[in-house]
Design brief:
The complex is a heterodimer of chains A (182) and B (301). Chain A is an alpha+beta fold and 182 residues long. Chain A has three helices and ten strands; from the N terminus they run ββββββββββααα. In chain A, helix 1 runs antiparallel to helix 2. The radius of gyration of chain A is 19 Å and the shape is globular. Chain B folds into two domains: 61 residues, no CATH class; 225 residues, 3-Layer(aba) Sandwich (Pyruvate Kinase, Chain: A, domain 1), CATH 3.40.1380.10. In chain B, strands 3-2-1-4-5 form a five-stranded mixed beta sheet, sandwiched between helices. In chain B, helix 1 packs antiparallel against helix 5 and helix 4 packs across helix 5. The chains are: A alpha+beta (182), B alpha/beta (301). At the A-B interface, strand 5, strand 8 and helix 3 of A face helix 1, strand 6 and helix 5 of B.
């Protein structure tokens, strides 16, 4: 069994990070999960959040956007749209962007948001919802950068970025998992 | 024989043109390098996404083969009644046969689909394709402009955000992409590939064959279906983005080559003109000398 994990963070702009580490914690949509050497193969959807990794006694953190992660006994590959490490975060710029995004979101609050499954949803509401989703994702990304910097903004009441359809209730998941293992 | 002044003027104007083509060649070269870098940077991401998607959809296919139901709206296969062809051309000319090749390929795909009994509609990226297909009387239902200026993933998303609902709602049954694939700075290959429905199960075998865990042993969080919901659009976005990048790099490559040969042609032309200019000048001098000598001879007598 390997005693190190090859951590790799890949973005559309290239390989953002490659490191040989002892332990990684990544934010999946169901909560944070840790990976130690010898982890079972796992494919997890990630949400915007902080990835913590430990090299020897040194612990580092970086921020990633939504994406997914593939873990194996000796590797963890994270595929994501966004990546930032602490040195790259410019809190002044990020705070300014965040304020702008929040302002735009506030404007959109006025537009009634129909439920995603409402049939009568006209084009305007659909577009408002799409815009809102993009803005929320952006807000989350900016907020997590500030969190990485060590100065997280106030939490909002807004829902976290939507992930696929509405999450299935946990009791449904159990029989499905047993089906797949057959 | 044209006058000395006329030749001089032509030389000057050819030189000016050569300066422009040389500058354009260098600009295209610099932009090409950047576009190439972006393709290289995107590659690991694209490869990995495709790999994971194929392994997930394959295991899911095995799991519910008999149900016959599509795993994801974007993976649905339908009889091809209405086909959408997305043509990626350039916004500008001065790039050799780049646009012509694309137009020919689009025309070919059009004829093929029509022969198969499908109605064909077009979506275009780039001014040239829109103009050409418009002239040919094609049904261009959407045109994306200014995609190439500052091309990034967000710009590519503008295209995919429009394409995906068309397919999901069943307005079109297939989407074909026609673009120039970047081979090297001097060669481009016109490619047409079926973009949607995404081919499932046909992906390359997972490289780590020596792994003790097969793909079906993977754990999924939260579950396979939800993962697929995210992976499929991501893969689709990446495919379109890659094609856009390839097309852009090809354009710069083609432009660089075209401008290089234009510069060379201008050089040849200047050499030719200079030769005839010198010849004309020599003739004029000789004529003048003859006149002077003739005059002197006449005075002697």
């Amino acid at each position: 069994m390997a005693d190190k994990i090859a951590l790799e963070i890949v973005t559309p702009r290239g390989r953002a990070l490659t490191a040989s580490v002892d332990e990684v914690t990544a934010p999946s949509v169901q909560g944070e999960f840790g990976v130690l050497p010898g982890h079972l193969p796992l494919l997890a959807a990630l949400r915007t959040g902080l990835v913590t990794y430990r090299e020897g006694s040194e612990t580092k953190r970086c921020a990633v956007g939504a994406g997914f992660a593939e873990a194996g006994p000796d590797k963890l590959v994270i595929l994501t749209d966004e990546y930032a490490d602490r040195e790259k975060v410019d809190p002044v710029v990020v705070r300014k962007d965040l304020a702008e995004v929040q302002q735009q979101l506030q404007k959109l609050e006025a537009v009634p948001i129909a439920a995603p499954d409402a049939k009568a949803a006209d084009a305007a509401t659909a577009q408002a919802r799409a815009e809102r989703e993009v803005l929320i994702a952006r807000e989350n990304w900016l907020a997590v950068q500030l969190e990485l910097y060590g100065d997280p903004p106030f939490a909002t009441q807004r829902p976290y970025e939507q992930f696929g359809p509405s999450p299935p209730p946990p009791e449904e998941e159990v029989p499905q998992a047993s089906d797949e293992s057959k | 024989m044209p006058s000395l002044k006329a030749i001089r003027k032509r030389i000057a104007s050819t030189k000016a043109t050569q300066k422009i083509t040389r500058a354009m060649k260098m600009v295209a070269g610099a932009k090409l390098t950047r576009a190439q870098q972006r393709i290289v940077a995107l590659r690991p991401y694209a490869v990995k996404t495709g790999e994971v998607l194929h392994s997930v959809s394959r295991t899911m296919n095995e799991a519910n083969e008999e149900s016959g139901e599509a795993l994801h709206p974007l993976l649905a296969r339908r009889a091809e009644k209405k086909a959408l062809v997305l043509v990626l051309s350039a916004d500008r000319g001065l790039c050799g046969a780049f646009n012509t090749n694309i137009h020919k390929a689009a025309e070919r795909v059009w004829a093929e689909k029509r022969a198969a009994g499908a109605e064909v509609v077009f979506a275009t990226v780039g001014r040239k394709a829109r103009e050409y297909l418009g002239r040919r009387g094609a049904n261009v239902i959407q045109d994306f402009t200014h995609i190439y200026d500052g091309l990034d993933l967000d710009k590519a998303r503008l295209v995919t955000k429009w394409l995906v609902p068309r397919f999901e709602k069943g307005e079109v049954d297939s989407i074909t992409l026609v673009y120039n694939e970047f081979k090297s700075a001097i060669t481009q290959k016109v490619t047409h590939e079926a973009l949607l429905p995404l081919g499932n199960g046909s992906g390359p075998a997972r490289p780590e064959a020596g792994d003790k865990f097969g793909p079906s042993d993977l754990l999924y969080e939260p579950n396979q279906r939800a993962l697929l919901e995210r992976l499929v659009p991501m893969y689709f976005e990446i495919s379109v983005y890659r094609a856009l990048l390839e097309s852009q790099a090809s354009f710069f490559g083609a432009q660089m080559t075209a401008m290089d040969s234009a510069t060379r042609n201008a050089k040849e032309m200047i050499a030719r003109l200079t030769l005839s200019y010198n010849r004309a000048r020599q003739a004029a001098i000789t004529k003048e000398l003859m006149e002077i000598i003739g005059g002197a001879e006449a005075l002697k007598d």
